[in-house]
Write a structure and sequence with these properties.
- With 182 residues, this protein is an alpha/beta fold.
- It has a single domain, classed as DsrEFH-like (Hypothetical Protein Ychn, Chain: A, 3-Layer(aba) Sandwich), CATH 3.40.1260.
- 47% of the residues lie in helices and 16% in strands.
- The chain contains 7 helices and 5 strands.
- A 5-stranded parallel sheet has the order 4-3-2-1-5, with helices on both faces.
- Helix 2 runs parallel beside helix 5.
- The protein starts with a helix and ends with a strand.
- InterPro entries: DsrE2-like (IPR032836), DsrEFH-like (IPR027396).
- It comes from Paludibacter jiangxiensis.
- This is Peroxiredoxin family protein.
Length: 182
């Protein structure tokens, strides 16, 4: 009877260890697909808020989201015609993003930025600096960069920036308690 009880306890301990091993991390993974100001603002507010709550945060910028990470002061050489066209048509950096709705030829975006300033809401540039200070990791989709003709030399200087594929994002998301698509 004692041996049977001991065997059951060992089995339960093994199952408990397996469950604990497979628990997701206290981590947030965000896909930033959009390059719209309001959506990127929401992503950065959530990311910095999660870091303030001691969660690990990994942001995966892909497709239109990658344009926000372009540095307005950098112009790499050696781009082909299509890369130059994408570079010309897409916003170059966080200050050039527009609202997804009610943009009204830029008037809506200017009104929102002015309102944020009056109400002491952090700008997108401030949120990026805070995210860097808090250790938010930014991963840029290599396929999107190649597709749009962006080069690493034109991206912002950010301490926790890496260039990855979708497999890295999926691995991060699999380990995360929370995954968001913005």
């Amino acid at each position: 009877m004692a041996n049977e009880l001991e065997a059951q306890v060992q089995l339960l301990e093994a199952q408990l260890k397996k469950l604990q091993k497979n628990q997701p991390k206290d981590q947030l993974s965000i896909i930033v697909f959009s390059g719209d100001l309001d959506k990127v603002l929401a992503a950065m507010i959530i990311a910095t808020g999660a870091r303030a709550m001691d969660m690990e945060v990994k942001m995966f910028f892909t497709f239109w989201g990658t344009a926000m990470l372009r540095d307005k002061n950098k112009s790499p050489k050696g781009k082909d015609f299509m890369s130059k066209m994408f570079g010309f048509m897409l916003p170059k950096g966080s200050t050039k993003l527009k609202l997804s709705k009610l943009n009204m030829f830029g008037m809506g975006t200017a009104m929102l930025k002015d309102l944020m300033k009056k109400k002491n809401v952090a700008s997108l540039e401030d949120l990026i600096a805070t995210a860097a200070e808090f250790g938010v990791e930014i991963c840029i989709c290599e396929m999107s960069m190649n597709l749009m003709g962006f080069k690493k030399e034109e991206m912002i200087d950010y301490p926790n920036l890496s260039y990855v594929g979708v497999g890295t994002y999926l691995s991060d998301a699999d380990e995360s308690k929370i995954q968001l698509f913005i």
